[in-house]
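Re: that backbone. Tokens:
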């Protein structure tokens, strides 16, 4: 399939449940767990337990209906606000939040996080802690200057972007523009965490291929520095799994903060 025919995450039908089954499940033959589940959990757990990033409000913008990364965050923020650009992703997420029949099962991710913390016997509490902290799931529109218009959200102490902007962005200028809009939701001196997919062009969901913007570590670093961010940590994990469902080369984790005097109103 020619790349110009790839579907676009927020414009075409994105099967949120199929995405979870193929890239985040515990089923036999699912080869992406080290990159999609363990890599972000390890880095987020390390980042939050260092004690520098915590507060009242965490805003999460992550691809699909994923919640596993919030296991690492829920004890460090009083309120979690999740923003989604896709209605089907909202529906699938709310199915889990409301504990409805047929909701996606995340116990394997909770166990991974408990193991990382060295608290293997406490994994069953993780889901309830996330549900308690997760106060709102809000539809967002990246074509608006205020992506949550007409809502006014309180400024966030921390924003997590989980592999979302590369799905939304048709080119690097769009990626930059969208990231600027996201960071307007951040309070002065707040923290930004990016979990990204490196050097990818597509992902397969069911029978369809969806566009992913190709970018590398240098691009992400350079743009954040240009925007006045200080990069506190940057970690890259090279891909080791074998699958033609997706053509990425690695995973990126960046934790950064923006100096107060450099914030633009």
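Recovered sequence:
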């Amino acid at each position: 399939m020619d790349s110009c025919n790839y579907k676009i995450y927020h414009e075409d039908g994105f099967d949120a449940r199929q995405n979870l089954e193929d890239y985040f499940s515990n089923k036999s033959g699912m080869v992406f767990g080290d990159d999609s589940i363990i890599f972000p959990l390890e880095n987020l757990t390390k980042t939050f337990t260092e004690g520098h990033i915590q507060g009242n409000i965490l805003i999460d913008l992550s691809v699909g209906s994923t919640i596993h990364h919030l296991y690492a965050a829920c004890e460090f923020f009083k309120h979690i606000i999740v923003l989604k650009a896709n209605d089907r992703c909202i529906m699938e997420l709310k199915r889990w939040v409301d504990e409805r029949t047929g909701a996606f099962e995340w116990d394997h991710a909770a166990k991974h996080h408990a193991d990382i913390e060295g608290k293997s016997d406490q994994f069953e509490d993780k889901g309830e802690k996330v549900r308690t902290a997760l106060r709102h799931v809000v539809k967002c529109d990246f074509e608006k200057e205020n992506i949550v218009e007409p809502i006014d959200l309180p400024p966030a102490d921390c924003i997590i972007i989980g592999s979302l902007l590369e799905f939304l962005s048709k080119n690097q200028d769009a990626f930059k523009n969208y990231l600027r809009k996201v960071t307007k939701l951040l309070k002065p001196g707040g923290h930004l965490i990016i979990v990204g997919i490196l050097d990818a062009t597509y992902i397969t969901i069911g029978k369809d291929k969806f566009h992913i913007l190709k970018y590398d570590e240098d691009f992400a670093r350079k743009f954040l520095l240009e925007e006045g961010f200080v990069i506190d940590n940057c970690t890259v994990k090279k891909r080791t799994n074998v699958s033609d469902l997706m053509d990425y080369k690695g995973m990126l984790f960046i934790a950064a903060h923006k100096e107060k005097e450099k914030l633009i109103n």
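Residues 41 and 69 are 6 Å apart (CA to CA). The first helix runs from residue 16 to 23.
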